[in-house]
Amino acid sequence: MLSRVASSLYWLSRYVERSDGMLRMLKINYASSQDTIQEFTWKPVIRIFSSDDEKELLNIQHDSRAVIEYLLLNRENPNSILNIVTLARENARSVQEHIPKDLWQCLNEYYHTVKDEKLLWYVQKDDPITALDILIKQVMLYNGTADSVMERGESRSFMNIGKHLERSIQSIDILDIKFSSISSNPDLLTDISYWKHLLLSIGGYELYLKTYRQGFDAKNIIELAMLNNDFPRSALYAMGNIERYFNRLKSESNIEHYNNLSFKIGRLKSMITYSSVNKMNEAELHSYLTEIRSELYGIGNLLNEYYFANS
Amino acid sequence: MIDNFIKNYLNHPKTYDEMFLNGDNYRNHYTNFINNFSKESLENLNKKEELAKKLFMSQGITFTVYDSGEGIEKIFPFDIIPRIITSTEWLFIEKGIKQRLKALNLFLKDVYSNQFIIKDQIVPIDVIYSCPHFLREMHNVNVPHDIYIHIAGIDLIRDHDGTFYVLEDNLRTPSGVSYMLENREITKRLFPDLIPQCGVRSVTEYPALLYKNLMSLSPRAVSNPTIVLLSPGMYNSAYYEHTTLARLMGVELVEGRDLVVKDQKVFMKTTTGLQQVDVIYRRVDDDYLDPLVFNPNSVLGVAGLMGAYRKGNVAIVNAVGNGVADDKAVYTYVPDMIRYYLNEEPILKNVPTYQLSNRDELEHVFANINTMVIKKTNGSGGYGMLMGHAASEQETEAYKIEILKDPRNFIAQPTISLSSAPCFINGKLAPRRIDLRPFALNGPDGVSIVPGGLTRVALKEGSLVVNSSQGGGSKDTWVLTS
To answer: What is the pTM for the complete model shown?
Structure first.
């Protein structure tokens, strides 16, 4: 496969996954903003999805509609859903003959849906959740189509590696930011809606209730988000998938490169599997998450060096 | 309802209309279509038009216009009423194009080797050597099976009496074939069952035919040669076509940056390393193919590609240097080429053409400029033309000055009243001018032409220019079985 094509497939998949995570985050946060007597702050969301130094953004942190509009539709914001989906589509457009026609049409429609002026109206004047739901449905269509029509080959491996890498980075970012707010505000430890909200943000609320019967406990939440192999957004599950799809590239790889990267992936997986996250304090947790994040970035960089930059 | 449509249809005076004879009498071969079409209500037709637009948009059959930093997706306008060609007309066209291609291919072989046609004074030497697309780099290069023109999109038009004329021979990188295929797909959705009922010949085998021809060109004797389609990239207006053809043939779509030349062989950069390329179907112009030989600023091409080509290590489709055969000044000599190489009378006529480098012809053209169309010999896409009957005096005078600077760059043709066909415009049937571009494929087994082509429509009322860059659209083109 062409290096350029592999890179585009990987990135298109990362962008779609990122947009999915963002949309769900926005939806949960908007719902909580409607369910609180205190002034709701979007600060953690802004910190995850845009660069920290945007002071003017923090001026609108209490204005839900303005934040959603900025993160969803702002053209100047390089990480807005609009721009991310445009990038996903541009990547798909340049590799159209490598993905099934149905999948290309899904992405194309996703793009045209994001550009539909109706969305802005929902965000500004009507129910913003309608806008988010319209888009979330597009991602579901994409994922379902990818799953049912994609050939089980090299293309899909690169796409799935991208997807799970993006997903694990997002879960870790959310955990890190949410737990660091606790260290500055210990009252949150006993705030049920805070925990519920965190679990909803990573899509694990229902599974948590089924798994742990004794109410909300920080240690259980970390265990779920990091180590539960049945939870499709846990770090361990994502690593398992990265490893699995990377292994499938073996026959198509330069063997030395393959071994190097395989070692790195295996090591990170062990680091997650055999960690004792549920015994860590906040500071330890933070440095642990930081290390995992940098290892994940490292894997991305090696993919780039070994597979995408071949020339 | 629909009867009103037909009654109110006004033929252009002195114009051959493809559907209507006069008043409300239509040509026989449209009977089947009209019987079905007349059952549709206006509302239904409007819905069909909407559906067509939606289908083009959702499938991404679009080109992007960049305006103030933001990409706007446009569709190539499509008219829902098909253009129908009888089997007799098609047989004639097919025969004519095959003959013409055979002669043009022999001409290219000749002009890049022995140049008998110049020595025998059929084509003047200065016409050839002054052509910017005549490439000395191609002299004595052996191309596989002596085929230079693998893909041709010869443009045909019809005059007021219905006679077919060749307007242009597009022998370099003719585009539009994906619209031939997509228009048919859309018609299937718009008019269910109609295509089998009317006995319309299928166009779907085009990609398979092209693929077979490309396979046969591989310089390496391997069972599975690597074929690539070289595109300038996704910002090119024909990018949709490049991806469609690559997908339909199952070949790799590459850009210049994906290829590299080593030891006079071409390779593509893959995740496992370098993989040798055997056949390149390029959609990049000659000028941009190889910065070492042609335009040194080109980033669309591959450094060293011409070296590999001359060495015979890679096949390039269409051959490099074909521009000398579809140059508008050389065009005048095509009927002579047919007589010279094939000893046959040309089947398809040329439009009478005046060479402005010839003093007498220049004077004649200037005296009758209102009835002339003047074109640049190396122009395309409908740019830089002067339509004598529509131009203002100022425009005409300014154009004359341009011509006198370098008359070799211009030719003139009498304005031809292109044939018209009914289009569905704003809820009415209205006549619009059309042309026809059939796509011919030339391989070791001979020339084959998929029955159909691209019918381009000048959508502006009264306009005679069908190019998409000048507000043109297209129609599905039906060739009937009998």
So the answer is: 0.85
